[in-house]
Amino acid sequence: MSFEEAMEQMEKIVERLEEGDVPLEKAIELFQKGMNLSKTCHSKLKKVEEQMDQILNDDGEMETLVIQEEDKT
Description:
Layout: H1 3-19, H2 24-52, E1 54-56, E2 62-64
Antiparallel strand pairs: 1-2
Helix pairs in contact: 1-2
């Protein structure tokens, strides 16, 4: 499942829960599904973040990008 698909499903779940006419058992089921989708999205974002921390060096190899903050004195 892609990040976008997971987000779309989560949005549908939120809309459904916000309608307020969902029986309790179904609401709990939807909530649990939403939490699993949230974990999926978080995992995918973390993976992308880790990829963004890498940069190709002059030899074409991946290395960790180190960003140094400017001295603010």
